[in-house]
Structures are given as C-alpha cells and as structure tokens.
UniProtKB/TrEMBL annotation:
This is Putative ABC transport system ATP-binding protein. Keywords: ATP-binding, Nucleotide-binding. GO terms for cellular component: plasma membrane. It holds the Pfam family ABC_tran. InterPro entries: AAA+_ATPase (IPR003593), ABC_transporter-like_ATP-bd (IPR003439), ABC_transporter-like_CS (IPR017871), ABC_transpr_LolD-like (IPR015854), P-loop_NTPase (IPR027417). SUPFAM superfamilies: P-loop containing nucleoside triphosphate hydrolases. Residues 4-218 form the ABC transporter domain.
Length: 220
C-alpha cells in the first residue's frame, strides 16, 4: 500500500500563494481531513498531491518516487475525486465506473463485478443504468465515489465529495472512505463538515494557505 510524503510543498497561481510550504507524511491506512473556509487552499493542496498541478516549490513523493504528471499519478493508483465530480454526463453511472477499470486493463468480468459492488456500496445499485446528467447532485457525488472505490486506489483524494449529501448518505460515504483507509489506502478528504472531519485520524486546517494541525497525525 502507498505512502505519501510532501516536502516544502506550496502552490501558487501567478502571485497568489494558495498553499504555503507544508510538510506531510501520510502512511498507508491514514485518513486525513483538510478543513478551512472557502478559498483557504484545500483543492489546491489536493490537486498538488494528485500530481494535477505543478507545485510552486517542494515535492510530492508516493512510495519514495516523485510524481511526474497526473498520468503518472493515475498509473500509480492515485485517485482524485474533484469538486464537480469529473463524471461524463452523457454516460450512465455504470459506464462511468466501468470505463476507467477497462482502461486499466481490468478484465471485463472483474470490472463488471467491481462496478456492481461499488455502486451497491454507495447505495446506487438501482441507478446504474441512469445517465449521470439525469441524476441529482448528491447521486452524482456518490457515483464519483463509487468510481474511485472501484479502482482500489492506493491514494484517494476526495475534494468535498460529501457536500451535496443528506446526513444519512454523508455518514455512509464517510464510513466508506474510512473503509478505504482500513483497507490500507491513504485517504485525504477536503471538507467543510465537522462531523466528517471528526471521523478522520487527523485534521489539518488551512486558512489563506497556512496550515495548522487541529488534530495532528500520530506515528503509527
Ligand atoms: N486556477 C486558479 N487561478 C488563480 N487562482 C486560483 C485558481 N484556483 C484557485 N485559486 C485561488 O487560490 C486560492 C485557494 O483556492 P482553492 O480552490 O484551493 O480553495 P478551497 O479551500 O478549495 O476553496 P473552496 O472551499 O471554495 O473549494 C483562492 O484564493 C483561489 O482564488
């Protein structure tokens, strides 16, 4: 299973520093909540950890090797669930989960089995044949989570993936994310929800890009 190390990692957009230099060491099985107000830098941190943007300074290493690109990160099992979900609206929920598995050369039989299990885990076993565009915002968030769960990622970066859910589904999805950590994945959840943050092993608060530990990681 994976471990993630960020050293002196910072993110900037021209002269706007979104994340001030930060060090993180996330061992396999760790669930970290990243909290903070809108614009605090949560998405920027997750995108940098996902190899989806080039840091202004510092580095991200996964299993000791630095990330070279988003494609490299995807190949190495780093799954980013972006805000807005990144789903293909004209495909069904099932197709959205299945296609990335087939692209990763998972056999069709296993891909179908994993797709069914992941949709069941998020409570959408009845909605697999619906077009994503015809699903509610909360259902779409659950499809995006199912898609990430089905890949059995070593690192799961979830950007406010429970923000549109009712309390029951939020609890269920946070428990599923916790289950991913118990499986051994590194899970990072950016969230405004104190209850979701409380479930994580540690909480890092960002404010104008400056990180403060609300609950620090403990050595495992
Ligand atoms: N593509 C971009 N170009 C320029 N500035 C950006 C860009 N993306 C984010 N920013 C700026 O970087 C800062 C951090 O934004 P970011 O989206 O990381 O915050 P956030 O904590 O995820 O916010 P939210 O909770 O609203 O999603 C903000 O000042 C934002 O305006």
């Amino acid at each position: 299973m994976s471990e993630v190390r960020a050293q002196g990692l910072s993110v900037a957009y021209d002269d706007v520093v979104a994340v001030q230099p930060i060090d993180l060491e996330l061992g396999a099985g760790t669930m970290l909540a990243v909290t903070g107000p809108s614009g605090a830098g949560k998405s920027s941190l997750l995108w940098a950890l996902a190899g989806a943007l080039t840091p202004a300074a510092g580095s991200v290493h996964v299993d000791g090797a630095s990330l070279t690109s988003r494609d490299d990160a995807t190949t190495r099992g780093i799954s980013l669930i972006p805000q807005g979900n990144g789903l293909a609206g004209a495909l069904t929920a099932e197709e959205n989960v299945l296609v990335p598995l087939l692209a990763r050369k998972v056999s069709p039989r296993e891909a179908l089995q994993r797709t069914g299990a992941a949709l069941a885990l998020v409570g959408l076993e009845q909605s697999g044949r619906h077009l994503v565009d015809e699903l509610s915002g909360g259902q779409q968030q659950r499809v995006a989570l199912a898609r990430a769960f089905a890949t059995r990622a070593g690192v799961l970066l979830a950007d406010e993936s429970t923000s549109d859910l009712d309390a029951g589904n939020r609890e269920r999805m946070v428990a599923a994310l916790q289950g991913e950590a118990k499986r051994g994945a590194v899970v990072v959840l950016a969230t405004h929800d104190p209850e979701a943050a409380a479930v994580a092993d540690a909480e890092l608060a960002l404010d104008e890009g400056v990180a403060t530990w609300v609950r620090p990681l403990t050595a495992t």
